[in-house]
Design goal:
The protein has 535 residues and is α/β, with parallel strands linked by helices. Helix content is 37%, strand content 13%.
């Protein structure tokens, strides 16, 4: 029996009519395909008649994540393609270990930044409140981003529109976004385990590795780094929850009920939601057992990279885990497997806004930045360069548009950089996807449910000082709790929550509730029930 769901497609059509106007392209693009994926999209300078291309300009783009080994090669190819546009790009990667401290400083400092990756989980709301992003008005998009005006999913704009201003260009695809775990199957078998069916099975695997394997080989059950937030997402899938607010640990959560918009009173501050406390208990048990390093808070090597380098025995993430499984399996005798621990629960559809690119308010040439972003997102050649690397070096592609990664892909993996997440269009599929991956991802399609609160964007301007104070407290406490590096879970959580209220959490909750209760979307318009199995 397929689960009924709020159809993204149906909702999109209805939202278009009731949430205000959407961009309508002005440039003559009649010679281009009607949709992305229906043919090659090749942009030319004459598609940007209102953009002054008379002088050369370098668009400075800032991304998060570690720099791929072959980025210079890819960037050189991009710049060669951009020569007719009299434009170049220069890219700075803020590494996973540094971006938390660098991101705000870069936007506040003297560096010239034109384009920057952002997301609800990457300072989008915080920086929007500061005015860090350029306002992408409908006229601006029509004039300077004609490809986005034509090809960007119309409903997606609402997810990056705050207080009437569109602050970023979101990804152009919504897809199943389940959270899974990957483990060393050879270690499973070494200790008499065959498969993981649920959270308790996974927990037992973790404790077994910590007890029997770590003292022998030094491999941690999970080589955690910074926090265990992805593992929390795996855990909370057991509760069929969705987020009404997701911003820098400041999360408001609710339990999904089919065909219903949650009432304001049903949306909880996540750390007052009992399952998070239960999760924190499990994290402390695992930490005390030695499942990860006591220095996990300050580790600079990500758990994913550590897994691929055989330093960890499990990771938690989305389908990206398969990339790191393949890395680990290059070592002789290593076998990996991924498991969905919540096969009886719903799967969230990834929000368009989960990954975005923004033009900065401080850009010296926002029109040129807009053109570059437009090209990177929709020109077929540039988009494939950004997402897949250099054809024939990092990947091959067949006549049906399915790509295959080559040996050199380890130096530039498919969809491996943050800009790729933000500029994906959903038109690229990997050829020969392994059966073990399809078993999981195909099963997701029948359980996908879109978040009914997805187009509600909280405007925190009036409570920003309170929110900043609360987030500062959460930054001190949440990573410790998610890593179990506390002496007493209840005492630590109660202390954190009390400090949050002392800092003004109630003011934030009251403002959130007020805005939510006056949110103009009538949910009756969104009750077109059908599955998303066609995604």
């Amino acid at each position: 029996m397929k689960r009924n769901a709020v159809s993204l497609t149906m909702a999109a059509a209805m939202l278009t009519g009731m949430l205000g106007s959407v961009p309508a392209f002005a440039a003559d693009l009649s010679n281009l395909p009607d949709k992305v994926g229906e043919g090659t999209i090749t942009a030319t300078p004459d598609m940007y008649p209102d953009t002054d291309l008379s002088k050369p300009y370098t668009v400075n783009m800032y991304l998060i994540g570690d720099t791929p080994n072959d980025w210079d090669m890819v960037e050189e190819k991009i710049n060669e393609y951009l020569e007719p546009f009299n434009t170049q790009i220069e890219t700075t990667f803020m590494s996973w270990s540094d971006y938390n401290t660098m991101y705000t400083l870069v936007l506040a400092g003297g560096e010239q930044v034109d384009l920057i990756f952002t997301a609800p989980w990457c300072y989008m709301y915080t920086e929007a409140a500061k005015g860090s992003f350029y306002d992408l008005s409908e006229d601006f998009i029509n004039t300077y981003m004609p490809l986005a005006a034509k090809y960007q999913a119309k409903e997606s704009w609402d997810e990056t529109t705050l207080a009437g201003k569109t602050i970023a260009v979101p990804s152009n695809v919504a897809q199943p976004q389940g959270k899974i775990v990957a483990v060393r199957q050879d270690l499973m078998e070494k200790y008499g385990m065959t498969e993981l069916k649920n959270w308790d099975d996974y927990k037992q695997y973790m404790l077994t590795v910590a007890e029997k394997e770590t003292p022998e080989s030094g491999i941690y059950a999970l080589a955690s780094s910074g926090d265990n937030n992805e593992l929390w997402d795996v855990y909370r899938q057991q509760t069929n929850t969705m987020l009404a607010l997701d911003s820098n640990y400041m999360d408001f959560i609710y339990e999904y009920k089919e065909g219903e918009l949650p009432k304001a009173e049903d949306i909880k501050f996540v750390y007052e939601y009992e399952p998070f406390r239960q999760y924190a208990y499990d994290m402390k048990e695992m930490a005390d057992a030695g499942c990860w390093s006591r220095s996990a808070l300050t580790n600079t090597v990500t758990d994913d990279d550590a897994f691929g380098a055989l330093q960890g025995a499990s990771i938690a993430w989305n389908a990206s885990v398969f990339t790191y499984m393949e890395q680990a399996e290059k070592a002789e005798g290593v076998e990996c497997m991924a498991y969905d621990l919540t096969t009886d629960n719903l799967v969230n559809a990834e929000a368009y806004s989960n990954n975005d690119m923004a033009i900065t308010a401080g850009s010296e040439n926002p029109e040129r930045a807009a053109m570059v972003l437009d090209l990177l997102k929709f020109d077929t050649t540039l988009n494939r360069l950004l997402l897949l690397g250099v054809e024939g070096v990092h990947y091959d592609i067949d006549d049906e548009g399915n790509y295959t990664e080559l040996d050199k892909s380890s130096d530039y993996s498919a969809l491996g950089i943050s800009a790729a997440w933000a500029t994906k269009n959903g038109d690229l599929t990997e050829a020969g996807t392994p059966e073990r991956e399809l078993v999981i991802t195909d099963a997701w399609k029948e359980r996908v449910v879109s978040n009914p609160t997805i187009t509600f964007v909280f405007d925190d301007a009036s409570v920003k000082p309170y929110e900043d104070a609360v987030i500062s407290i959460l930054n001190d406490y949440v990573p410790m709790l998610e890593l179990g590096l506390v002496d007493d879970v209840d005492k630590t959580m109660d202390e954190m929550i009390q400090k949050c209220y002392d800092a003004g959490l109630q003011n934030v909750i009251d403002e959130f509730t007020s805005q939510y209760n006056t949110w103009p979307v009538s949910y009756t318009h969104l009750r077109a029930h059908e599955t998303l199995s066609d995604l």
